[in-house]
Description:
Layout: H1 7-14, H2 49-66, E1 76-77, E2 87-88, E3 111-112, E4 120-121
Antiparallel strand pairs: 1-2, 3-4
Amino acid sequence: MRDNGSAYWRRWMVGPLIGGDPPPAVPPGRAARTGRFFTVHLGFSAPDLAVAREVAVGYAEALSLLRPELALGASALSPADAWQRAERLFCGAVGPDGERCLDVAGHPGFHHAPGPGGLGWGGGDQD
């Protein structure tokens, strides 16, 4: 572009000849991602791993009641200085209708869908 007086420049500033908005100065990039997954880390102290697991399950269940968008099945527990050693808090087994078991990890018996009276599946005590 040599100067601001060119026909192209005037057309761009006023809009296309047919009407509407001027063309974007930069072509649009890829679409923004929606529904990204983020993790919050809550610190607390406990005498051992078994007690820490129970406290963490309690925190996760309480937060899921307050905030239903919380992905309860994605909850994990790790030592504060070793996040790479995170272990799942909930079972997460996939049921026949695509729901996930929200019992604690390693639970005995049937798997259960979320909610009161949720569908149960699996081999019971043989699982």
